[in-house]
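Table S2 (continued). Query chain:
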Amino acid sequence: MTVSMNSGILSRHDRKAALMRAHFEATNTFVVNLVSGPGAGKTALLTEILAALPRRGLTTAALVGDCATDNDAQRLAASGAPVRQIVTEGMCHLEVTMIDAHVQGWDLNDTDVLFIENVGNLVCPAAFDLGETARVVMLSVTEGEDKPLKYPQMFSTADLVVITKIDLAEPCDFDRESARAAVHTVNPTAPIVETSVKYPSTTGAVIDWIVDRSSERFPPVDPRKEKG
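Corresponding output:
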């Protein structure tokens, strides 16, 4: 009976996520669900990305999920991008109804890339589709190389895996090859990039990936073809 109830709840959620995804597609908004354990550096990385994408011709906005406080939203708002905080009041993940409620009033036709910074958790968010176009999962070197094996559902759903705080790899005795092998054990085709906000140039691969994926998803419209 419990399994049946859970299946019913997720089925309703998935239908809502499909509608949300259709809405994002209609506005040509590329949506990134950014997920990691707590303290992996989501906000720090997203701050760099929000500052960089306008220089690449892309408009951005962000939703930030936390159990309490609007600290991260305040940090991200310094980028100049529209930012809204979602306070879950203890809930360990975001759900699509929260996304729907918090994008109300935004003209997403003017937003090329919407980031959803999920609650810091490698368990529950894996099961909840937010209508996103892509899921980016982050792994900090301080967490250890075996996190993908411990949390396979999350890493198996990643479109991109970002290893963060790579400047701390040596003092943390972080084995890069073991980490990459763990990722590819559960997600053989996932691209992996290494970053550190201490070295801003390392975030370039993530930014390039977002630019490339968003252009593939929504290629520029040739007005000559529209007229034809």
